[in-house]
Write a structure and sequence with these properties.
Layout: E1 5-8, E2 12-15, H1 19-31, E3 39-43, E4 55-56, E5 63-71, E6 74-88, E7 91-106, E8 109-121, E9 127-135, E10 141-148, E11 151-158, E12 161-168, H2 178-189
Antiparallel strand pairs: 1-2, 3-12, 4-6, 5-6, 6-7, 7-8, 8-9, 9-10, 10-11, 11-12
């Protein structure tokens, strides 16, 4: 057992999950399941996507994180996150991409799960749009969201269907880097940086 793990019950070890993964998953996944004021179903392929183009930076990521995931001492997967500057309509933004791959064998049966997340936010962490793709089986689930006019428009696609929901949204909602940005601001305020 490492210092990162917690002992639970009769000798079972549960790896501690870093809070950086809980925040985006806790925010983005439930958004697709929120009952909407207005919603409609349409076949996949019908598009109301924006034509705004994000220009990615050619430079190396400003932050790159590799993580290994373990369960009971056995490696079951990995995570990779990159943060890069991006530009849209002359506005400086931050683009974050994250992938998680898990491969677990239980009772002789191997299950693989892949989750990819993309987030576009302002330098101070305001969420502008996101995309999450979850592959647990034969049909992936893709959830996208775009903030605007005090609402987040969330589209969920799976098994050839598309469902759109609109929820109230504030520019104060922060994304992947929210905790790090708050700690950095607090450290600067206290003269620690």
């Amino acid at each position: 057992m490492t210092s990162q793990d917690e002992k639970v019950g009769a000798g079972h070890v549960v790896p501690r999950i870093r809070p950086r993964w809980l925040a985006p998953l806790a925010i983005l996944v439930p958004l697709a399941m929120v009952p909407a004021c207005r919603r409609h179903d349409s076949p996949v392929g019908a598009s109301d996507a924006s034509t705004d183009q994000v220009q990615e930076s050619d430079q190396a990521p400003t932050e790159e994180i590799w993580e290994a995931f373990y369960m009971q001492g056995t490696k079951i997967g990995y995570g990779h996150t990159t943060t890069r500057p991006a530009i849209r309509d002359g506005r400086e933004l931050i683009q974050i991409r994250s992938t998680i791959h898990l491969a677990i064998t239980r009772f002789g049966q191997r299950t693989e799960q892949d989750v990819s997340m993309e987030l576009l936010e302002t330098p101070d962490g305001e969420v502008l749009e996101f995309k999450t793709e979850v592959n647990f089986g034969p049909s992936p689930v893709i959830v996208t969201g775009r903030a605007g006019d005090a609402e987040m428009v969330i589209t969920t696609q799976t098994q050839g269907r598309r469902e759109t929901a609109r929820i109230a949204w504030s520019s104060g909602v922060r994304g992947f880097r929210a905790i790090e940005l708050q700690y950095t601001a607090l450290a600067e305020l206290c003269g620690l940086r």
